[in-house]
Amino acid sequence: MTDYFRNDVLTKRPYIRIEWCEAAIRSPLKRETQPEDGRIRHWLWVPELDRFLRVVTLDDGITLHNAFPDRRFKP
What we know:
Blueprint: H1 3-12, H2 18-26, E1 30-33, E2 40-46, E3 51-57, E4 64-69
Antiparallel strand pairs: 1-2, 2-3, 3-4
């Protein structure tokens, strides 16, 4: 995980669980690559949040960079 994820994301959103992020990377509902920087977005439905979680990794597809409930995502 990046320093940003560790120091900012987990601090601002303490309800985010690492296991949700790992599940999103392993078996996402949808995955897409951001053309501008190669980062990869992964989406997963999280029943505990009653929302879709967007997890952003670096271009290696593994290193966690960001995660947040995505209100706009439509499967």
